[in-house]
Write a structure and sequence with these properties.
- The protein is of the alpha+beta class and 83 residues long.
- The protein has one domain.
- It is built from 3 helices and 4 strands.
- Strands 2-3-1-4 form a 4-stranded mixed β-sheet.
- The longest helix has 11 residues.
- It starts with a strand and ends with a helix.
- Bound molecules: zinc ion.
Length: 83
């Protein structure tokens, strides 16, 4: 299972929304979240959570594993060029 940290809908600044993102609900709390295209297209068993719930999960996991999914690095560089 891969935990994907997503930008919450409430309070989100347009500046940080990856173009092509789609709306979904946090798997833990049900809050609205934006799921970036690279995250949506990433194969495997993905669980999309908001940043608050991601922080809660990290608190409970003393040795979290992070990875950059394919396409996310390109999205980040595209965003950085525009901002
Ligand atoms: Zn949540």
């Amino acid at each position: 299972m891969r935990v994907v940290i997503c930008l919450p809908f409430l309070g989100a600044s347009d500046r940080y929304i990856t173009p092509g993102s789609t709306l979904d609900k946090c798997a833990d709390c049900g809050a609205g979240i934006f799921v970036a295209p690279s995250s949506r297209e990433s194969p495997g068993d993905n669980v999309y959570v908001c940043m608050d719930c991601a922080a809660r999960r990290l608190r409970d996991d003393p040795d979290p594993k992070f990875e950059v999914v394919e396409g996310a690095g390109r999205e980040l560089l595209d965003w950085h060029r525009r901002n």
